[in-house]
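Hi R.,

As promised on Friday, here is the backbone we talked about, encoded as structure tokens. Could you run it through your design pipeline when you get a chance and send me back a sequence?
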């Protein structure tokens, strides 16, 4: 199989195989927690280069995929009621809770087709600029992990939000969902973690110290080149062989141990950390951001009487048959879903993991993530 790796990477692959073989067949499941890492793994064919006892699984690394349906429903309703909605390109196609073919708008794209004022932007600052020019009443759907939260917080703290524009805060935090994911893998424990590079530039490499300390799992903060990911896998296997799990920052060219103090300060000044819902997963303790009371004037939840769901109110919010929750947690591969590349395709996404370029299903659909080749080999009796 052709792979997108260079000569240095090929050397690392051979070292990975050598160390993996020294584990005497011990099964090793390594999880990445970043959609861009999964893209690198799939696009470069890294999964196909792994020894039989090493499995790479995708974790919850796509913020669009886990944005709760009730947020999408809320902005669709606001849009249909005449409020302008600003959104990123990914969330423009993100389905809410309406079933397909219901005759009602299921996405912001559907709402726009029905005449709603929905504007795609690349940033909150672009939304601010557009709102200042056109005025009226508008809402910005603020989604993302710690990587995008600082831009929201900076605009709020520095009083850049103009009158008439409010923000629906759907930001989520990565360390709490990592703990949650470990609990879901008790039957087949995760043995290594490739920690998210983008998020780590904000929270710092030190944010992941709890992984080897509390769970005994080797952890490597990695960059996004194929060589970065392969090196992280090699370090994880070496730590497993030596029986000494620890945290390694392999991405020192971008990630500092303490992260970005200014960004973290802005987030803390702007928001409280609260229990929050994740699509298909439920309420995860202390995993979301909510604007502090002093910023109620720009908080869409407060201004429009919206409600954040509590544990007893949360309902499963994935469409029937969709296995995005299991894919998000690494409990299933995209190809395990019966809808994959049938009802659900990149051009016509049925579930949220097919919407974003960072979603595991979208990555596998566009570049081939593994599994299909093995099925063909089995069907042809070539095992």
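Update: got your reply. Pasting your designed sequence below so it's all in one thread:
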């Amino acid at each position: 199989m052709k792979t997108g790796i260079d000569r240095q990477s090929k050397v690392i692959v051979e070292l990975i195989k050598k160390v993996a073989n020294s584990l005497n067949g011990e099964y090793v499941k390594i999880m990445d927690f970043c959609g861009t890492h999964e893209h690198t793994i799939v696009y470069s064919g890294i999964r196909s280069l792994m020894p039989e006892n090493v499995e790479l699984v995708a974790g919850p690394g796509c913020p669009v995929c886990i944005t709760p349906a009730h947020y999408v429903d809320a902005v669709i309703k606001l849009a249909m009621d005449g409020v302008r909605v600003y959104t990123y390109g990914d969330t423009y196609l993100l389905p809410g809770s309406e079933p397909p073919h219901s005759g009602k708008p299921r996405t912001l794209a559907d709402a726009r087709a029905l005449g709603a004022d929905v504007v795609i932007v690349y940033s909150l600052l672009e939304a601010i600029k557009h709102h200042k020019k056109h005025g009226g009443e508008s809402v910005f759907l603020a989604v993302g992990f710690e990587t995008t939260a600082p831009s929201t917080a900076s605009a709020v703290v520095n009083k850049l939000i103009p009158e008439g524009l409010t923000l629906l805060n759907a930001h989520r935090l990565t360390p709490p969902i990592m703990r949650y994911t470990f609990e879901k893998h008790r039957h087949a424990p995760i043995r290594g973690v490739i920690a998210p590079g983008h998020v780590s530039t904000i929270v710092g490499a030190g944010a992941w110290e709890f992984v080897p300390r509390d769970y005994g799992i080797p952890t490597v903060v990695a960059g996004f080149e194929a060589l970065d990911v392969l090196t992280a896998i090699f370090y994880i296997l070496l730590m497993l062989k030596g029986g000494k799990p620890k945290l390694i920052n392999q991405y020192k060219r971008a990630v500092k141990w303490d992260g970005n103090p200014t960004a973290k300060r802005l987030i803390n000044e702007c928001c409280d950390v609260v229990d929050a819902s994740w699509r298909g997963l439920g309420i995860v303790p202390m995993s979301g951001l909510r604007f502090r009371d002093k910023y109620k004037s720009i908080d869409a939840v407060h201004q429009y009487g919206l409600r954040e769901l509590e544990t007893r109110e949360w309902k499963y919010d994935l469409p029937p048959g969709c296995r995005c929750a299991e894919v998000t947690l690494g409990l299933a591969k995209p190809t395990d879903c019966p809808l994959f590349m049938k009802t659900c395709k990149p051009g016509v996404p049925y579930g949220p993991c097919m919407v974003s370029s960072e979603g595991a299903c979208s990555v596998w659909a566009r570049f081939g993530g593994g599994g299909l080749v093995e099925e063909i080999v089995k069907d042809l009796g070539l095992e």
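One thing I noticed while checking it: The mean pLDDT is 94.

Thanks again,
M.
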